[in-house]
Amino acid sequence: MLRIKNLKCFYGRIMAVKGVSLSVKKSQIITLIGANGSGKSTLLESICGLLPDWKGEITFEGVSLKGFDPPAVVKQGISLVPEGRLVFPPISVLDNLKLGAYTMYRKRQHAAVNQTLEKILDLFPILKQRAKQPAGTLSGGEQQMLAIGRGLMSHPKLLLLDEPSMGLAPLIVEKIFQILETLRNDGITILLVEQNAQAALQIADFGYVFETGNVVLQGPASELLEDQEVKRAYLGKDYGEFYDDKY
Amino acid sequence: MQEMLQYLFSGITNGAIYAVIAIGFSMLYNSTDLINFAHGEFVMLGALCMVTFFGTLHLPIVLAILLAIASVAVAGLVFERLAIRSVKNPEPIVLIIITVGASIFLRGIGMILWGKDAHTIASFSSHPPLDIAGAKLLSQSIWIIVILLLTAVGLQLFYKKTLTGKAMEANAISKRAAWIVGIPSKLMIMLAFGLSTAMGGLAGVIIAPITMSSYDMGTMLGLKGFCAAMLGGLGSLWGALIGGFLLGILEAMGVGFVSSGLKDATAFLLLLFILYVKPGGIISSASVKRF
What we know:
The complex is a heterodimer.
Chain A: E1 2-11, E2 14-24, E3 29-34, H1 40-47, E4 54-60, E5 63-64, H2 70-76, E6 78-81, H3 93-100, H4 102-106, H5 110-123, H6 125-129, H7 140-152, E7 158-162, H8 170-185, E8 189-194, H9 197-203, E9 206-211, E10 214-220, H10 221-226, H11 228-235, H12 241-245
Parallel strand pairs in A: 3-8, 3-9, 6-7, 7-8
Antiparallel strand pairs in A: 1-2, 1-4, 4-5, 9-10
Helix pairs in contact in A: 3-7
Chain B: H1 2-32, H2 39-56, H3 61-84, H4 92-114, E1 130-132, E2 135-137, H5 139-161, H6 163-173, H7 175-181, H8 185-207, H9 218-232, H10 237-258, H11 263-277
Antiparallel strand pairs in B: 1-2
């Protein structure tokens, strides 16, 4: 569905992603894990057109995404749930969601938008309760749900998530990841960038491990979970087995 | 008492005009973080277009008003396309200097097209002035106030009820977030320029019958409108209204009760004062929702 070949991304002269290839299959959760600054978010930014300065190949359903700006990428059916959520704080929850469907409204698909809205409010009942409130008054977890809901409003085939667990309590993270599984079962493909490797690998089908702009390891998520190197570097197993029992 | 009322009327009239200009400033600032120092020149263009369409060509009044506003909005769009968007390194200070340059340019255009003489046109309607407790209220003043209120309500509805309005607001809050969602930010900025300069044009149109319109009228009006916007709180619709009326009324009282030399000084004294005690303006945008 999404195919990336030898992708190199640049911030000015600095190469943040150094020749990465990966592919995302339909109706799967693919996760990219790795430490800060390993190039995961940069990769997402390149896919969705925020970072135009890249070389290599990104194709989505056979269409090259070179030179697409973010609105054009959204129209192709890719939606980004950005790092730090980036909801519109003074605007109400409901309107935040409706803005997510901007491209749908422009295609005059009002009925479809209303249907999606219903679905999303069912998926996140808390958003229904808070529909009239400004998004800025929501808690972190609720804002993350809003950001995901907003991303879904444009009917994406592929949902990109950048660190949805950041700054959230473990219980909320669990809830959000459950929802991601539900979405996958509904046929939405998910590319999940996470630092919380344990949680991400548990729901993912396939994983890529990033290190300083390169993919150093890849494989089915269940295998990565058992991999000694991953355990040592990202799952903290060396620090005692009791530690990960808390997850 | 009668004198006081008369000053109040003239203050409200001027205040309404300052408010329309201030709304234009606020709107653009909201969407682009840019202060357009050429805004006053768009007011001048509005007034002089009105002189041509209504005074010279004798078009029907409604058509003349719409044409004048549309012409100014088109000028604003051209300005954005040619002078603002083409800037390679759009730092705020560069853009602000560009707007200052544009204001000089537009003044030159105005002088070439309409000459150096001042022009006047008739009021929108020829009703005699209303007599309220001995003070006279011009029919044009009523027009101005009604048009201002309709505009304010219209804008409020536009920003709160329409998708485009909400998208503009979203774009103003965070360009990045709006872009991700699929809102074309360039289009939104263009729209903001168009609307803002249309507001300037509207101010020119409604002021034309009660003032001498000439190529150099814009500078002072622009500065007054800027004062009003700062006074009320840059970026807020209601702030622009409050600031406009406050400035207009205090100015009129200053002229009436102290000295006519104080007219233009009032605005700047008030601006200094507000910047000193409450730099964010009366409704500072931190506490108020951006419109």
